[in-house]
Amino acid sequence: MLKENINKIDYELKGLFDSVTIVEKNHKNNFYLEIICESKKTKVRVNIDKINLNGRNVKWSYYTNPLNENSDIIDRVSNIDSISNDIFQILSKKQMNSEYLESIKFDDNIVPINESSVTLEEKEELQKKIDDIVKRFQLENVKIEESYKSDFSHTKTAIYQGKLKTSEKFLLESNFQSIGIQYVTFNEDMIKIIY
Question: Helices 83-92 and 2-16: crossing angle, nearest 10°?
Fold first, then answer.
């Protein structure tokens, strides 16, 4: 199943990106695949532990700045049938940090996010959905920051605290993704989202 899953991911990614490189690496006897995909001058860098490729659900991670190993790493879980599209969404939805995005000279096919295209009603609706999820999972609001970066609009970073089991973390991430928030990280009892 391992080889079939690797071949499936490789084949599907090559249909979505201009360039795909898959290299087997190891760190302290932990064998993993590093996948670097590139399209329209934008790179996506993904790591998948080989052990996670033996089933239908695949745990993987990506760098918010594919050029910097010290950048934030986002953990994700995908079905083997959707992982390639999920990786492609990182590029299409520009789910990297602003430092990396600002370093890219975009061509006409990739347009930076324009905050003015989002109405006040849409922002309020999104905030209501976030609040509902936070309440449902009994999370405590720790901090909300807002930032404005060149052409990449206005973003909010929200940090919450809550004691969640691993299965609850997967469910929470899935809930956030269902409303369009793809940037979700966990650090012990802390949950960080960017939207």
Answer: 30
